[in-house]
Amino acid sequence: MATLPECETLKLEQSGSILHLTLNRPDSRNAMSLAMVHELRSVFAAIRDDTGVRAVVLRGTGGHFCAGGDVKDMASARGQKAEDGSDPIFELNRAFGHLLSEAESAPQTTVAVLEGVVMGGGFGLACVSDVALCLESAKFGLPETTLGITPAQIAPFVVRRIGLTQARRLALTGHRFDGSEAFWLGVVHDFAKSGEELDQKLEQLLERIRHCAPHASRMTKELLLSVESEPLDALLDKAARDFAGAVRGDEGQEGTTAFMQKRKPSWAEE
């Protein structure tokens, strides 16, 4: 099992194969500081090869998910002098883009649980999750253009999540919307009317994840993420090789045997 890094802006708790990763800057509604970006990247790097972690649950403290980028960090970067040709604002923004790419490609199944404000960078983080749940009362939006800036690193992931035409509407109007509209848009996969219902839906989801074979889930996520970038014939060739290996592998043999014996496979956690 991987050693998790020490974090000041995150709370980490592992329950069996589930890592609960909680944004923990409640005084700023969990705004995404550069320190938080670095810590999130460190956590995803630490668990990347850890097959003992099958799912990551992203959540926020204080009743909010994330209010977006930390304006104080932006102001500080603007006041810094560029050294060696580097631009502090560019580095700050690009680091968040690296985080989104790394979170999206994490081999674990990532689950975003969204409450309160889900703005800007928080919205982007929600868009790279594999499954997203929210409270109906949650408030979503891309407010960057109302602040005189652009959703630079977030935009590609939003487009992939909900399509170009809706992304244009949200980004170019600063439209804010609740959890039911987020569900209609495809940002989230389900929503709840109360915190108790949200927790119930999360536990039901995690139970389903626990019943999926860990290695097969990793291979499946890699396959799905390759659809947009790989030539179809090459992708299908690789998929067939992976399938053959899976059928002959321990998980494939155990899964088919368990099915025929009408029992749960060995990886299914209670």
TrEMBL record:
One Gene Ontology term of the molecular function aspect: catalytic activity
Which Pfam families does the annotation name?
A: ECH_1 (PF00378)
Identify the domain of life.
Bacteria
Q: Which GO terms describe its biological process?
A: isoprenoid catabolic process
Listed Gene3D superfamilies: 2-enoyl-CoA Hydratase, Chain A, domain 1 (3.90.226.10), Lyase 2-enoyl-coa Hydratase, Chain A, domain 2 (1.10.12.10)
Q: Where is the composition biased (Basic residues)?
A: 261-270
The region called Disordered is annotated at 250-270
- What family name appears in the similarity comment? Belongs to the enoyl-CoA hydratase/isomerase family.
User: What protein name does the entry list?
Assistant: Enoyl-CoA hydratase
